[in-house]
Amino acid sequence: MVKQLDRPRSGGLWRIFSSPKGQQSHFVETEIPSMANKSQLSQAAMLSGPAKLTATTGLVDKLTRDLTSVNLLPHRLSERDAALEELKVYGRDPRNADPIFTREGIEMLTRHAFDSPSSTTSRNALRCLCNALLLKAECRQFFVDLGYEAKVCNKLKNDNRDDEFLASRLVFLTTYDTDTKLEQLIDKYHLADSMIKNLERHAKYHSDGGRVTADPMQDMALAETLKLLFNITHHCKQKVPSFTQAVPHIVTILCNGSFQVDKPLDSPIGPLVNALLNLDLGAKEVQSSLYPPAKLTALSDRLVSLLEQSRAVYQQEELESTVTALIGVIQMVHGHAPQDVVVLIRQKLLPTEADRKEVLGRSASLPSWLLKNSTNPVAPKLRDIISNLLFDLSDKDASRFVENVGYGFASGFLYNKNISIPQNASEAFSDDAGSSSRPINPVTGQFLDSEQHSDVPEMTEAEKEREAEKLFVLFERLRANGIISVENPVRTAVEEGRFEELPDDYREDVD
């Protein structure tokens, strides 16, 4: 299991492909407190040091005794819920709240969460429990050791968004730093079936054009289910087929959902994209959802639109953790698409004639943005996935790849993949290649008649000799330091007689 919880993980992917940084550190506040006096909760939030520790200890003891002696009788249910709400306030900061984060404290909260006949008490305890597992890694194993897997999964069967959010969050947190048996949750307790059913409910909700007001709890529960789906399918790959039926619902929500977000890949849109990443998009039973007959490009258009929006919003340092997953999903959708969809995706993502009026990668278009980031030094995973996408868009053919993106962008990728590179860049361009008959510079990808030639005078022979000497020295230093192991090209040229030693009194003829 992953040993960090500071940011959503990627498993190679989720930590990179998740929604905005810090989202996972949010505490569970899914509804306004109703059982406890608000002024009392405000006072509790102000406590610190020994006073907070004393108050926390008292509440934990009181709630623990209630489990055995029924100290808080059913008719005094509001008192029990008020105690849990107050405890939740203390549990937001683990300092001087130690009793909450002990094995005994976690057991007390778990029993109130899953053994109470009151749904209100259960949810109040679940909020405390989720916050505790978020803040203290050891609490996750404490919870797993209690053996409440069946009851957690049963909670997900409820047609209730609070229960979906809290139970999904709880299972999600146990995928870090614990020995929880994900395969058993799926096979024995039908976790996948419950999650797919919840996604079906969300799809129906977002397909209902008659909705008047948005329900924030819907989006919160949806995001938590999607995050859990990603983690399970990453860590339990043998059970990915159990979640294939989730694909149509995710696609429906992604294409039909209307979300109020500040950035295009904010939750729940980012998690919707991420969730597709580990699923089998090649499965026969989901093809009609990915490419609906009524509009074959519905999904691909939505994904490319998100990419277009994202490139204008996210800063360089954000791209790796936000956009990489989106490009990975576009690559998967392209890989399984019918020919009509393939053609349209390529038209939007490969350089156009307008892009070739300049050196490729310099215009303001989406294809140029992709090319520029295919060599992004601060986003290695992003640049790799972009290069792989562009190679796929070129039918995985080296010559066509060079034709599409230029020898300059293509050569490094092909070399790293150990794919044969055309000996001469111009060999990659056949007479009928490309969308135009205008000659193209095979290295830069620019139309030759659009190139601007420098007015700088040609170097003199003496200047050329000095530059050759500098190049010779540079290669010798690189060889001596072990950075490269190739033969010095200047030395080779001299040995082959392609360099002429000029006398010291040589003067170049000047017309």
Description:
This protein has helices at residues 14-17, 38-46, 49-69, 77-90, 103-115, 119-135, 137-145, 149-155, 161-173, 182-187, 191-207, 216-235, 246-256, 269-276, 287-290, 298-313, 316-322, 324-336, 339-349, 366-373, 380-393, 398-405, 407-416, 461-480, 489-495. It has 511 residues and is an all-alpha fold. The protein has 4 domains: 28-91 and 97-147; 149-349, Leucine-rich Repeat Variant (Alpha Horseshoe), CATH 1.25.10; 351-450, no CATH class; 462-511, no CATH class. Helix 4 packs parallel to helix 6 and helix 18 (324-336) packs parallel to helix 21 (380-393). Keywords: Chaperone, Guanine-nucleotide releasing factor. One of its GO terms (biological process) is G protein-coupled receptor signaling pathway. It comes from Xylaria grammica.
Task: Summarize the SSE layout with pairings.
Layout: H1 14-17, H2 38-46, H3 49-69, H4 77-90, H5 103-115, H6 119-135, H7 137-145, H8 149-155, H9 161-173, H10 182-187, H11 191-207, H12 216-235, H13 246-256, H14 269-276, H15 287-290, H16 298-313, H17 316-322, H18 324-336, H19 339-349, H20 366-373, H21 380-393, H22 398-405, H23 407-416, H24 461-480, H25 489-495
Helix pairs in contact: 2-4, 3-4, 3-5, 4-6, 5-6, 6-7, 6-9, 9-12, 11-12, 11-13, 12-14, 13-14, 16-18, 18-21, 22-23
